[in-house]
Amino acid sequence: MESFFHKAILFFSKSVPGKISLVTGCLGLLYTIRWILGRGIPKFTDHPSKTSINTTFIRQLLSIIPIVIPSTTSSEALCIYSLSILVVFRTILSIFVSTLNGKLLKAIVTLNSQQFFRRITQLAIISIPSSLVNSLLDFITHKLSIRFRVSLTKCFAKKYLCGLEDFRMIYLDRQLAHDILTEEIDMFSTCFSNLFTNVTKPVLDIALFCLKLKDILGYRGPLIVLAWYSFSGFLLNILNAPVNRLNRIVHQYNEVYRHAQSNIIDFGEEIAFLRGIPWEKDHTNNVLNEMTTNTELLIHKKFMVKTINSIVSKYGALIIAQLVMSIPAFASNNWSIPVLSKDYIKTSSYFVNISKATARLRLTYRNISSLSAYTSIIHEGLNNLNGLKKLNFPDISGKYITSENIQFENVSVVTPEGQLLFENMNFLIEKGHHTVIQGPHGCGKSAVFRILGGLWPLYSGTVSSPDRDNLFYLCSVPYLQHGSLEEIFAYPHNSEIDKQRLFESLKTVRLEKLLERYSLDSAEDWKTALSPKHQQLLSLARVVYHHPKFVILDECTSSISIDLESEIYQHLHSIGVTTITLSERDSILKFHNFVLKLSTEGTWNYYKISHADEYIFS
Fold first, then answer.
1. 7 pLDDT exceeds 70?
2. Rounded distance, CA 240 to CA 313, Å?
3. Quick one: pLDDT at residue 532?
4. What are the backbone angles phi and psi of residue 560, rounded to the nearest 5°?
């Protein structure tokens, strides 16, 4: 039996036909396993993904790098230099520890207690810098991630916030900008800062440990090791492909099932009214059956792949390691047990480190895939912001003038999509001309405010208005930033607050008891701390405090009682604030003396409130 196996090994290893047969058999076995794993998987079309690693990803990343690493002498660059030094030093320490382990075993085999305790002392000493280097690598990597995030956030926020006053910002995907500022930049910074150590450390480990293996085993040892890990990685990628595809199919069916259940919750009354319960039951059961069938198939495929993965990664690597480590013993007769033991422990440690580095490189691919996705999103956001400045609107001929009053002269109110709402609008709101902008829902009341604020393009006509310190705007859900009461009243400036005037303003809107619950300098989240009514009152108190010349009130008293609403309007008029109210309620007319009446047909009337309803413009 032994002679049969011996002859078979000689045939496959020595003769050319044997080698061809061996390669052909391995390829046939690989194809058979791949076919078995792919069998039974439903057809599935992958959509184009933004996570692919290609030249587009590299080009996008190179465009972002100057933002996060502005120069070769920046703090970010210094962190990278420090990481480079620490990575090399860490690998050298790992090699030294592996060599020291071999010497320890040699001292045990030779029963040399003096050498043993000397090596133990060296190991205890070397543990201090080794631990320090590992901690420093993590520390600097996290610092680098924070610096990347700060630099990228400042760049993006500067472009984004500076453009808010430009009407072109209406063409920007605000949700994308929000996601980039709150999530994507953070994830990108983490992935990009980890990328350096995740790539350089394992590559350097593989290179240096293979060089050390060469000193003991010659060129054959490192070449066999590298060939095995390359082959096993390629093999596992091929075998994992069907399982990954099936995993995506299961995820897709999970989403369909979740969506079906959400529809039943969200549209339950409509489904019940249309007698759609039997259809929904059949639909959800069919989706559930597909999901469970494919999940069971995935479990079977994973069982096969995990078995093969264990054979290749664990036992295959162990067999290759034992074969390579046996080279010094069988290649020469001039060896001693102490030396052989020392070399065996050293090569064993080298193999462990090479194996860890190879596994880390495989995980790095996932890190790069995630980095590719975040890079694509951030690059898209930056391109959108830069592209807004290049948008050209040759038809826009309107102009804005700073004036003591608010006046529209031959203004055409046009939406950003190009829809004409009102044509040749003319009206003048002087100081004391308290005006109501009235009309049904969706007629364009807010459009007038947006044209006034420059938030929509002014295609024609002239808009005159005071500077922004004398023109306030309040909506039904007021903007109250996270901060103290002093910061709320000072917004958008950072000036000192007159505390006595602040108290009087709160007293005017009956919010003086607010100071009993919150101090002036305590930071709060006012959206959760206050009810909608108190939020509206606090925003009105800001208007009382600043007493601008004009204030636009967009349904900002909807949660306030009628008597308190009347008191606030009377007080604003008494301190010289001209109110412009956007409302559908007729009860608001008594606080004003002019009306801008709008309709959904595109007509408008501006007139003084009187029994005769005298028209000023129409």
1. no
2. 13
3. 87
4. -105, 145
For residue 343, give the 3-state DSSP assignment: helix
Characterize 81-120 residue by residue with b for buried, 16 or more Cβ atoms within 10 angstroms of its Cβ, and e for exposed. Answer: ebbeebbeebbebbbebbbbbbbbbbbeebeeeeebeebe
Q: Identify whether the C-beta of residue 597 lies closer than 8 Å to the C-beta of residue 438.
A: yes
The tens digit of pLDDT for each residue in 17-30 reads 544 554 555 556 55
Token output for 163: 């453009």
Q: 406, exposed or middle or buried, with CB in 10 Å at 0-12, 13-18, 19+?
A: buried
Distances in whole angstroms, Cα of residue 236 to Cα of each of 139, 227, 318, 370, 548: 34, 14, 17, 21, 71
Helix (H, G, I), strand (E, B) or coil at 425: strand
Who contacts 313 (Cβ-Cβ below 8 Å, separation ≥6)?
232, 236
Give the model confidence (pLDDT) of 592-615 as tens digits.
Answer: 889 998 888 888 888 888 744 444
CA distance linking residue 212 with residue 210, whole number of Å: 5
| Mean pLDDT across 319-333 | 67
Cβ-Cβ contacts under 8 Å for 380 (sequence gap 6 or more): 176
In contact, 234 and 123? CB cutoff 8 Å: no
Residue 462: the pLDDT is 92
Q: CA 169 to CA 180: how far, in whole Å? A: 16
Mean of pLDDT values over 461-478 = 87
The pair of three-digit structure tokens given for residue 191, joined into one six-digit string = 């992935």
Query: What's the pLDDT tens digit per position in 309-324?
Result: 777 777 777 777 777 7
Quick one: pLDDT at residue 615?
A: 44
What are the φ and ψ backbone dihedral angles of 402, each rounded to 5 degrees?
-80, 130
| End-to-end Cα distance, the chain | 110
Cβ partners under 8 Å of residue 37, min gap 6: 239, 242, 243, 301, 304, 305
Does residue 360 carry a pLDDT above 70?
A: yes
Which domains are seen in the chain, by residue range? Answer: 1-39 (no CATH), 40-389 (1.20.1560.10), 399-617 (3.40.50.300)
Residue 548 tokens, joined: 């601008």
According to DSSP, the β-strands at 550-554 and 578-582 are parallel
The pLDDT confidence band at residue 338, using thresholds 50, 70 and 90, is low
Residue 167, Cα to own-chain centre: how many angstroms?
Answer: 26
Mapping DSSP to helix (H, G, I), strand (E, B) and coil, where does residue 144 land? helix
Average pLDDT over residues 142-160: 87
Q: Are 476 and 558 in contact (CB under 8 A)?
A: yes
Can you tell me the distance from the alpha carbon of 136 to that of 139, in angstroms, rounded to the nearest whole number? Answer: 5
Instruction: Tell me the two tokens of residue 489.
Output: 């009243």
